[in-house]
Amino acid sequence: MSLIQACLLVSDLFSFTFSGADIDECRYGYCQQLCANVPGSFSCSCNRGFVLDPEGRTCQDVNECLEQPCSHSCFNTYGSFICSCEEGFELTSDGTSCIDLDECSFSEFLCQHRCVNAPGSFTCICPPGYYVYEDNRNCEDINECDTGNNTCTTEQVCFNFQGGYTCLNPLQCPPPYIEVSDNQCMCSVENPACRDKPFSILYRHMDLSSGRSVPADIFQMQATTRYPGAFYIFQIRSGNDGREFYMRQTSNLSATLVLSRPIRGPREVVLDLEMVTINNVINFRGSSIIRLTIFVSAHPF
Q1: Which of 101, 230, 249, 282 has the fewest Cβ atoms within 10 angstroms?
Q2: DSSP 4
Q3: Fold equal for 25-61 and 103-141
Q4: % residues pLDDT > 90 (the chain)
Q5: What single string gives the DSSP state of each residue in 213-254?
Q6: What UniProt keywords apply to this chain's record, in alphabetical order (predicted)?
Q7: For the chain, which residues make up each domain, given as ranges?
Q8: pLDDT at 230 over 60
């Protein structure tokens, strides 16, 4: 072979190779999403959340919700999906699972007494003697005396207080006192044994919530009769060992019992509130007692 013939052969080979070079079809946007060039052709594919149409170029959204990937609710989006949870649940970090939301851990004030968590919800519980109010959170006292759900006899008087009740026995006046009404005992001035004793003892009852804010006016005492030249002194005669109370005189004829320190229940406090009458014109000094029984509830409501 001559040198000229050899050069022509190389030239033909070069011409054949150049004319058979691969065309990169991906440069022309033949695929909607992903394109992979291959020798003499190309291949289309789709991003996650899409599927290739039968014609091989365009992509259609996949409705992942048909596979039920979510624990609760599924909302299909373009190329993906979103899970959501029912009320009382929260989505976990995997984005598909729902776990119970412990509402009771949010705040100690969610329920007035006690909060019990339940799947997707919570329940407020009240102590004995109370029922759950209409708002499903607060507690309301059950008046056992009105409902008849008590153990008092016909001789006793039912007295309701916050969270409970008590049965009051018929009045029994200690000697030398005599009964003048269903709640009052008197000591006759003609009786020598009544000397230096309060003229009368009036029995009263009231209830008080545990831990009530202070100071608080809780009871009023007043003279019912005014004599010329007389003045009155009001004081706590007995029962105030813890110094939770004091008397504040509000006028010449009246005074108010003040709660000065928080008091916790359940507890029963008996105070003798004394009204001393002094008349220097006739040289008279006497007194009368209100025996006040206070039923302090076990709870602050």
Answers
A1: 282
A2: H
A3: yes
A4: 86
A5: -SSEEEEEEE-S---TTEEEEEEEEES-TT--EEEEE-SSSE
A6: Calcium, Disulfide bond, EGF-like domain, Extracellular matrix, Glycoprotein, Repeat, Secreted, Signal
A7: 25-61, 64-100, 103-141, 172-300
A8: yes
Considering the four listed CATH numbers 2.10.25.10, 3.20.20.140, 3.10.490.10, 3.40.50.2000, the one that applies to the domain covering 64-100 is: 2.10.25.10
Whole-angstrom distance, CA of residue 121 vs CA of residue 104? 9
Task: Work out the number of other CB atoms within 10 angstroms of the CB of residue 281.
Answer: 9
pTM given for the model: 0.75
More confident residue, 118 or 225: 118
CATH class belonging to 103-141: mainly beta
C-beta of residue 290 within 8 angstroms of C-beta of residue 247 = no
CA angle 82, 83, 84 (to 5 degrees): 120
Q: How many other C-beta atoms lie within 10 A of the C-beta of residue 167? A: 14
CATH numeric code, 172-300: 2.60.40.60
Question: Which residues, at least 6 apart from 81, have a Cβ–Cβ distance to it below 8 Å?
Answer: 49, 63, 64, 65, 69, 70, 74, 75
Sign of CA dihedral 67, 69, 75, 77: negative
- In the numeric block, which tokens belong to residue 120? 């997707």
